[in-house]
């Protein structure tokens, strides 16, 4: 299985369960692993035959700016659903980190996998 990668993508959004968090924008840091077969794109040297990491990054930042969830779980689930639908992604792994949310931790967050891994039985 081939992967297109987006690592440490910074996005700004309203996120959090506490009252003070509903009035500010905070940064989340995302890692995405997106399953695709890269061979057609490589064979034809054609961006149209692969997952465009620039377009997906831009869409992810726009999604973050447009939403104000309480939980990082909801952010992850809804973003995964949107990206899979819009870009036809068969399988993805998404890590959402919220740096600074727990002072003693470098970051906290969630990791989800959605869809069917190509080649899985
Ligand atoms: N599993 C989760 N735990 C917590 C979340 C969350 O989104 N998922 N959020 C918070 C607060 O918003 C926290 O990030 C504020 O510092 C607490 N726990």
Automatic annotation (TrEMBL):
Q: Which chain regions cross the lipid bilayer?
A: none
- Give the matching SMART domains: FolB
Listed under GO biological process in this entry are: folic acid biosynthetic process; tetrahydrofolate biosynthetic process
Q: Which domain of life, per UniProt?
A: Bacteria
Instruction: Give any GO molecular function from the UniProt entry.
Output: isomerase activity
What EC number(s) does the entry state? 4.1.2.25
By its UniProt entry, which Pfam families does this protein fall under?
FolB (PF02152)
Task: Give all residue intervals belonging to the Dihydroneopterin aldolase/epimerase domain.
Answer: 4-114
* Keywords assigned: Folate biosynthesis, Isomerase, Lyase
Which transformation does this protein catalyse, written as a reaction? Answer: 7,8-dihydroneopterin = 6-hydroxymethyl-7,8-dihydropterin + glycolaldehyde; 7,8-dihydroneopterin = 7,8-dihydromonapterin
What family classification does the UniProt entry report for this protein? Belongs to the DHNA family.
Role noted for this protein: Catalyzes the conversion of 7,8-dihydroneopterin to 6-hydroxymethyl-7,8-dihydropterin.
The protein, known as: 7,8-dihydroneopterin aldolase
Q: Which organism is it from?
A: Halomonas alimentaria
Q: What is the lineage of its organism?
A: Bacteria, Pseudomonadati, Pseudomonadota, Gammaproteobacteria, Oceanospirillales
